[in-house]
Amino acid sequence: MLRSMFSAISGLRAHQTKLDVAGNNIANVNTVGFKGSQTVFEDTLSQVLRNGSSPQGDTAGTNPAQVGLGVKVAGITTNFGQGSTQNTGRASDFMISGDGFFVTKQGNEDLFTRAGSFDLDGVGNLVTPDGAKLQGWTAGADGTVDVNGPIGDLRIPSGQVLAPVATTGFAIGGNLSAAGSTTPVTSQISVYDDLGNAHPVSVTMTKQAGANTWSVEFADAISGTPVPMTSAPGTITFGADGTLPAGQAPITLAGPAGDVTVDLTKLTQFGGKNDAAAKTTEDSGSAMGVLQGYSLSNDGTIVGSYSNGLKQSLGKLALATFTNPGGLEKAGNSSFRAAGNAGNPLIGAAGTGGRGSLSAGALEMSNVDLAEEFTGLIVAQRGFQANSRVITTSDEILQDLVQLKR
């Protein structure tokens, strides 16, 4: 009788723990990045009333007779399944699709989280709502990111200035009509000096008497002053197939900061309309730019947008995976701590090494299933009630035993 009472007490404790876990899951049904937990039971040691025996000659074997001594919580496991997506439109909200955790630093401790709701602090650090700093790789001055280097605090350098770049080249591409019109084809492009000052240059192409020959002239678009060509004549001649000969040399101009090479290889002379125009290339330079905003690509690269129309990488988010994520220890604030059985964090870029991809302007919500949790509540409640009835029944039997003397 006492065994039944103590077994029932262990059942009360175990089912109370199951209720606690279910209650915590339901409380966090709308917590960003929350991962629900499940309670796993196992029986405790059993008392042997009679040992079993193996068959011996003509004697049959017997099974052991054992009485269980109750139940205990074997473990509380975390479900790391993907949560639903909530679009927010905020540039600093990031969501992981697939495996991986954001790496954050709280003081001197590295923490890991699936909650991607970040903000900027007073100096531009990307931080969690409780102040932990998001970790990743900061881009160099030229925008390159070394993902093999150590990770550190990610910062959005508000007001950062992108130095101007002098123009060393641009291209003229498109079609010059073979229909025979002598109407000049004009376009305009800006070339930049070392200080980032823009100098608008007009380009005029006019068909000549020769069937396939065009003149090309360059001038200051404001004053009309011709811009001298330093290396090639101001004419181009197309082949019979409407393309320029393979050895067509580029035109070189005397630019505001040195020679400017004009690439002509994308020009054609077909029967269509005139749409040839000056076009920017990688060598077209730029004015000074000031950081105005940022966005996130699927590989975790934070791309800054500058006032001069250019974009450049500011850094890249780091993601961590674990051999056994179930071994992580919950550290509060929707974060996890790398405990002994989780293994060492494997840190790398999104989309590599089995890590998931990233999306900006969205958050991963809790993966708690309310229908499942309410069902679990009913099961836990019934288990608790049944064990309490065992205690009251055992108590009544003990009371009857005490009253036998009467």
Helix/strand layout:
Layout: H1 2-27, E1 37-43, E2 46-50, E3 65-68, E4 71-78, E5 85-87, E6 94-97, E7 101-106, E8 109-113, E9 119-120, E10 126-127, E11 133-138, E12 152-153, E13 161-162, E14 169-175, E15 185-192, E16 198-207, E17 213-220, E18 235-237, E19 251-255, E20 258-263, E21 267-268, E22 277-279, E23 289-296, E24 301-306, E25 311-317, E26 319-321, E27 329-332, E28 335-337, E29 346-348, E30 357-360, E31 362-364, H2 370-402
Helix pairs in contact: 1-2
What is the structure about, briefly put?
The chain has 406 residues and is mainly beta.
Strand content: 35-45%
* SS elements, strand count: 31
Using only CA atoms, what is the Rg?
37 Å
Secondary structure tally, helices: 2
The main pleated sheet reads as: 12 strands, antiparallel
Q: What class would the helix/strand composition place it in? A: mainly beta
Gross geometry = elongated
What is the residue-averaged pLDDT? 92
Distance between the termini: 21 Å
How helix-rich are the residues, as a percent range? 10-25%
Our count of domains comes out at 3
Subcellular location: Bacterial flagellum basal body
Function: A flexible structure which links the flagellar filament to the drive apparatus in the basal body.
GO biological process, one term: bacterial-type flagellum-dependent swarming motility
InterPro entries: Falgellar_hook_FlgE_sf (IPR037058), Flag_bb_rod_N (IPR001444), Flagellar_FlgE/F/G (IPR020013), Flg_bb/hook_C_dom (IPR010930), FlgE/F/G-like (IPR037925), FlgE_D2 (IPR011491), LlgE_F_G-like_D1 (IPR053967)
